[in-house]
Structures are given as structure tokens and as C-alpha cells.
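TICKET: design request
STATUS: open
ATTACHED STRUCTURE:
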């Protein structure tokens, strides 16, 4: 049994936030943000809009793009760092709102690597014969966890959602468009403090003490994370290439986690892949964490960059630390 991508959907909340707008509120400038990150705009949900709302929009579009009805989906996996509530998971609510019926539905928390963790897990369910059509969603509302006073994180992250439908396929021909060929997952909990929300979990419950205001928000050691991101994504990508039997020259499109344009350029350089093969949309959406890879795929596909059968290498990195890579051939689909 193999798995293949048959549908792709995405959704951005309408409110577009410019570097100029943020520079009026924080000690930063449009020039600093663009030159250090490549980001020009990001989208933020309006108060009252939650991750599950964005996930449901993107999920519905992916199901439709795959030519399926909600009844055809038998598992939903949602990757997010910003669930609607600490408890329960957001996935069952999204499944219910999409009319999927009483299917299995659960969240995966691997921060910015979350979508590829979810995709690899969906693949494993299919190969094990446990599912036929899996809806894999990455959705985030980082605007709800960013410290309004912290210029080092506030300018970087955006909200959004993207989703793929992965289906079971008996035909093993790797060249058949859409086939998922190999995965690689990894972590290093020894460096968990590089990306964190210190308070609000069981180690520092907000009910048991009064943590400093800043510790309730997302925090990141940017420079150390930058180095780890390039190193871990390139190591993981090389492992997945070896499992696929591709060399770097075979890769038509490199879709890295959209954290920073300098990270994406460095990743291509480390892998010896020409920079023009790297997909970049961080300039318009910022770092959308678990939504980053499917949003990058959707935007590149909308621009007509992919042809059916193209060899696509996905690589992600995030808090945990976690990292993940996936190799697939591009499907013959119309993203919605
Ligand atoms: O999604 C999970 C993975 N996340 C990432 O991969 C993010 C990885 N890190 C990065 O993308 C970059 O490290 C950042 C964009 C976060 C920061 O860029 P940098 O070039 O690494 O800057 P830096 O952190 O080394 O800071 C350089 C200077 C500092 O000032 P001093 O100490 O040199 O005086 C910062 O305080 O820039 C300052 N700075 C800012 N200045 C203006 C930090 N943020 C800002 C800002 N505006 N928004």
C-alpha cells in the first residue's frame, strides 16, 4: 500500500498586516524586518477567530479539491501550536464542522514541523491499512500568542491554514504523480528552551502562581534557532533523499519551512540546490508555523510553478526541537 496526495486547500484570514503598521507600534522599521527576514506582510485573524475556524475553511477546500465528499474522509489530523483550547483537541471539532461523521480526529503538536509530522503519520496510517482518505491540516493563529511588546517575535509570525488529502493507492509506481515516497522525522528535547511558552502548562500552571506577563507568550532565541534550522533541515532532507534514491540535482522544487528568506536560501545552498528551485512565500504570509508548508505549496501551485510528476522535497524545523522531511511527486490537482 502507498499513499498519494489528491487534494490541496488553503485559507488566510483577510486582515493583512504590513511592516509599516508594525513599525508604528514597535521599536522596529520596515527595512529591518524585510532585510533580516524577507517578510513584507502577514495575515492576522481578527479577535474571535480561532485556529479551528481557519482549519475548517482550508480542510473543506482540500476535500473539494480532491473531488471527495466529507463522507469519504476517515481520519483527520490537525497540526497546530495554537489549539482552540488547552483541552480538548481542536481536530474533533473541525471534523464535526466539516461533516466528516464519527471519524478518528486528533491534534499533533510539533510546532513548525507539525504539518510534516502529521503528513508522515497520515502516510503511516494508510500504509498500515487503517485509513483510506486522510485530511491533514496545518493551522495557526500565532497572533493570539505573540507578546505585543516583543519586536523579536511580533514581526515574524502570521496566521493561516493549509490542508492536503492523502489517499491510499495500490499502484506502487513511484513516477505516478502525487506519490509520497519517503519521510524523515527527528527531535532534540535537550534544546527545548530555544522556542517556548514558559507558563500555562503543567510545569508552570497559570492557576498555581502568577507568572511574569512575558512568560505567558511565545518566546524564541532567534539566532540559535536560525543555526539549528539550517543544520537540522539539511540533515533531514539528505536522509529523505537517500531513502528516495534521489540526488539533490533531481529535486525540482525545495519547499522549506517559511521562517525566514535567509534560512531558505541557506538551506538550498547547503543542499546544493539552485536558489531558484526554492519555493518562497514568507514575504507575503510571514512564518505561519504548522501552516507554513501547505500554504507554500498552495501559493506555488496557484502560480503554476508545479507540473504533475515534478519531484518535490519538503523540509521543516520547529520548537521541541523537531524537524521533518518528506519527498513526493507533484499530483495532478487544482488547489482551492
Ligand atoms: O519557526 C520556527 C523556527 N524559527 C526560525 O527559524 C526563526 C529563526 N531566526 C530568525 O529568523 C532570525 O534569527 C530572526 C529574524 C528572528 C532575527 O534575525 P537575526 O539576524 O538573527 O537578528 P538577531 O536576533 O541576531 O538580532 C540582531 C539585532 C539585535 O540587536 P543587538 O543585540 O545587535 O543590539 C536585536 O535586538 O537586531 C535586534 N532586533 C531588532 N531590531 C529591529 C531584533 N528584532 C528586531 C526588530 N527590529 N524587529
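STATUS: resolved
RESOLUTION: sequence designed for all positions
ATTACHED SEQUENCE:
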Amino acid at each position: 500500500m502507498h499513499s498519494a496526495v489528491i487534494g490541496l486547500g488553503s485559507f488566510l484570514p483577510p486582515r493583512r498586516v504590513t511592516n509599516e503598521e508594525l513599525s508604528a507600534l514597535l521599536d522596529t522599521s520596515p527595512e529591518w524586518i524585510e532585510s533580516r527576514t524577507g517578510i513584507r506582510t502577514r495575515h492576522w485573524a481578527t479577535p474571535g477567530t480561532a485556529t479551528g475556524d481557519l482549519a475548517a475553511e482550508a480542510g473543506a477546500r482540500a476535500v473539494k479539491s480532491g473531488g471527495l465528499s466529507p463522507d469519504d474522509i476517515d481520519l483527520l489530523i490537525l497540526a497546530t501550536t495554537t489549539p482552540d483550547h488547552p483541552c480538548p483537541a481542536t481536530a474533533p471539532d473541525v471534523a464535526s464542522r466539516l461533516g466528516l461523521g464519527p471519524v478518528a480526529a486528533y491534534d499533533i503538536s510539533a510546532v513548525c514541523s507539525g504539518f510534516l509530522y502529521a503528513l508522515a503519520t497520515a502516510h503511516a496510517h494508510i500504509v498500515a491499512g487503517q485509513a483510506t482518505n486522510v485530511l491533514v491540516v496545518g493551522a495557526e493563529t500565532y497572533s493570539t500568542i505573540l507578546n505585543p511588546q516583543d519586536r523579536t517575535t511580533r514581526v515574524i509570525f502570521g496566521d493561516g491554514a493549509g490542508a492536503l488529502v492523502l489517499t491510499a493507492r495500490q499502484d506502487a509506481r513511484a513516477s505516478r504523480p502525487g506519490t509520497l515516497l519517503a519521510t524523515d522525522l527527528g527531535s532534540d528535547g535537550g534544546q527545548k528552551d530555544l522556542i517556548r511558552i514558559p507558563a500555562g502548562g503543567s510545569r508552570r500552571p497559570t492557576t498555581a502562581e502568577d507568572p511574569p506577563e512575558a512568560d505567558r507568550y511565545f518566546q524564541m532565541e532567534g539566532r540559535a534557532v536560525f543555526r539549528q534550522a539550517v543544520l537540522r533541515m539539511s540533515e533531514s532532507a539528505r536522509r529523505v533523499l537517500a531513502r528516495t534514491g534521489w540526488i539533490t540535482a533531481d529535486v525540482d522544487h525545495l519547499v522549506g519551512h517559511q521562517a525566514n528568506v535567509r534560512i531558505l536560501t541557506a538551506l538550498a545552498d547547503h543542499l546544493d540546490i539552485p536558489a531558484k528551485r526554492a519555493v518562497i512565500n514568507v514575504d507575503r504570509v510571514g512564518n505561519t508555523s504548522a501552516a507554513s508548508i501547505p500554504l507554500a505549496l498552495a501559493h506555488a501551485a496557484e502560480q503554476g510553478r508545479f507540473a504533475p510528476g515534478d519531484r518535490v522535497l519538503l523540509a521543516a524545523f520547529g520548537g521541541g526541537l523537531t524537524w521533518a522531511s518528506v519527498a513526493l511527486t507533484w499530483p495532478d490537482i487544482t488547489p482551492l
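CLOSING REMARK: The chain has a mean pLDDT of 96. The domain at 180-329 is CATH 3.40.47.10 (Peroxisomal Thiolase; Chain A, domain 1).
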